[in-house]
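Bumping with the actual sequence this time:
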Amino acid sequence: MSDPTLFLSLAELADAYRAGRLDPVGLTERHLARIDALEPRLAAFQIVDHDGARRQAAHAAARWRAGKPLSPLDGMPMTIKDNVDMAGFPTRNGSLLSSTAPADEDAPVVARLREAGAVFLGKTTTPEFGWKGLTDSRLRGAHTRNPWDLARTPGGSSGGAAAALAAGIGVVAFGNDGGGSIRIPAALSGVFGIKPNFGRVPHSPLEGFFATVVAGGPLTRTVADAATTLAIMARPDDRDWYALPPPPDGWLDGLRPRLAGLRIAYAPHLGGAQPDDDVRHAVEDALARMRAAGAEIDEVGPVIMRLRPAFEAFWEASFASRLRTIPREDWDKIDPGYVAVGERGLDIGADLVLAGEKERARLHRQLAVLFRDYDLLVTPTTPHTAPVVETEYNAQGYDRWHDGVPYTLPFNLTGHPAASLPCGPTPDGLPVGLQVVGTKYAERLILEACLAIEALLAFNPQRDTRMSLL
């Protein structure tokens, strides 16, 4: 089960394709075999497209033989989260109430990846409507499992994406993040994930409350792979009216590891968050290495106000807005946790929603003050390691605000770019994530710092015998 070919980077695979040591058809077959072997235990896929992946791989192989690959992603197996459209397949969004009709066209990010020659293995699992930081749904009928410990969750809502990637399925996974849904599963599953600046990666359709907090981006096993993929994902699409102006060509070319001289704020208690001891120790061991490499790191206070109660009504109202569109007789088909939050939001008026928008502006101002003095902010990505799959989200014992998103949600509300990279396992062998946050539009600096941290920590899940699926 530990085929090293499955863990090669994009650059290593391109070299192998160019030299004829591998081709996209053979590599895709290995990844499909990996899915067939692991999926009964992993439950990371909603749809596996064996035939489509083989067709795409054959076309890519022909391009490589002709010496004319379309991009660094040509012939590279990857996965798409099942809450964005992929032409020819339904977008189930983790819900029994979703349509089974196939999408007519690709979402912008899928279109850009398809144009680049990517090989789509299938669509990965998400909790219903992406509502929580765990991954299970009545539609899938199973809990998605963490490859490090099958009794635990990979996080969510891009849980299937992270679990598959950590288990050696796909070279890149597309996820999206409205409160931590890339960074949380990246942290809990021991992979890298970046939520770019809001508007950087075009989306469509996207509307309602979450339209201004969701950002799409890559999950990968290396920082360099994420940079390569993000450059393609961020290509323009006129369907998204929130999209930023297209970045210049080559905006992520020539990245170099960078830590020396950077001024970094460390906020273990961001907004009142409380990390577990094993999480804090792993993060601070990483920070010690970063200081030795020349980074200037100061521990700072909470920096921002507590997210609750300032944003609780805003969150509940967002769920209620969807719940109102669903006939009440169908509510028993929805995740009960989602319904509970949505019902609390049904009586929330416009005044409280607008108050939430005012609080977002205040939150941004608090961070702007910090970034006057610091280049980057670092925190744990999550306060805990991966909980067991039976954990009930937003309930006693695992509160959304305290246990789920205290470190990640602030940067959805403000739009700042933020990444999570592995900073080592705990003594019991579970991954811990280090979150690296930059000021607006600072993806390049984040990636350069993460390249340096990655080299210092040398975390490699393929070589870690503690992963239960390897």
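The tokens above came from a reply further down the thread. Residues 188 and 386 are 5 Å apart (CA to CA).
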